[in-house]
Please model this.
Amino acid sequence: MDSLKQRRTIRKYQSKDIPADLLNDLLESACRASTVGNMQTYSVIVTRDAERKKRLAPAHFHQPMVESAPVVFTFCIDLRRFSQWCRQRKAEPGYGNFEWFVTGAIDTLLVAQTFCVAAEERGLGICYLGTTTYNPDQIVDVLELPELVFPLATVTVGWPDENPPQVDRLPLEAIVHEEVYHDYAPADIDRLYAYKESLPENHQFIAENGKETLAQVFTDVRYTKKDAEAMSKVLWETMKKQGF
Amino acid sequence: MDSLKQRRTIRKYQSKDIPADLLNDLLESACRASTVGNMQTYSVIVTRDAERKKRLAPAHFHQPMVESAPVVFTFCIDLRRFSQWCRQRKAEPGYGNFEWFVTGAIDTLLVAQTFCVAAEERGLGICYLGTTTYNPDQIVDVLELPELVFPLATVTVGWPDENPPQVDRLPLEAIVHEEVYHDYAPADIDRLYAYKESLPENHQFIAENGKETLAQVFTDVRYTKKDAEAMSKVLWETMKKQGF
Model:
């Protein structure tokens, strides 16, 4: 499992395809992930068709991986299949609500991440696209997702055509709390973010964006409050439109 | 990676403790999971203290694993640490909204599941407790979670003291959709659920609950609409209370 510690996201792929047998094997492993009540409240949409990838691209702000990866996976919350089964079995399902949106999200992400770990173990490279929760309405349209199905995570997959350096992570003491949450004193924050702030690539990042601090690159450029509030609205409305 | 396919949830643990070094090693691996903008919007609360486990137990409907596992992990969405860093760096964070609740949930669950895969690879047994999203308000209290921190997934971990049979899963064709979502015809549902419905343990489950179909055990007993609606309200209110 040393591969887990060595992992890095891959955004450039060889043009070589991925055998369907290998993908099925990875998906079989993924579906062994824990699932609430063994209900498997997820579906996976597999996009290989160039035309369909082209239609997906705008929803992902034209990140090149969508069109350059041989396969794009969209992991969706799915309470529809289970609800249909209930209705065919004289049972009245009650899964169109916020609780099951969140519970379904947990199921879905456990499968998505197990798939990714298995794929990387077999030498494939993966990239999660955070854009899925920015433009879920567009993805619903392109992938023809019906009621009680919601797109949550998109993963592009292919044979690596790059070997990027591993990016930094916060020290473990920043993440782990013993027994109860221990709030951070200003000096803790300074210490925990010191390494990240010392990195030459982050100094460059600040300069390129004409900002004073690395944090400002996040709040003013990459992930602004204004964008988040607009996306919250779309996310909420799409969740409602999909019947949750 | 055959271990992924052989995995099963473990609910009974030996009394043997787990070395802190091993847990740290697993957490280091887990934190290598993909994370949006390398922001690591999660925290992990580690519960070892018997008294604290006892206080957590009611929130998890007294499932025995909470008190019998040597260690209980609560994986939390955390936009607090990042926001504090922003404020200390002349940057105004905008992460107290629904978009970042969902984005933080994705980050959190990728770490949780990577941790579980790594733990199982090292011979540990794990169990996810779905109850975390049922009673988040109680967990917030017991673990003293401040604003912008939200408990999403609880995992009990220990050395296995049982070897249960592997449970069924739906066939892959129930989960995977090529290019677009293909809705299920009634005959599809019958075929895809046939194996599950044929299992002796599920026949017993129907009989024990005095129901006519397996689906009714879910809708009328295990996961009712009434409960889900009440839990949706608590989940929503707790999310708001925590500042999202």
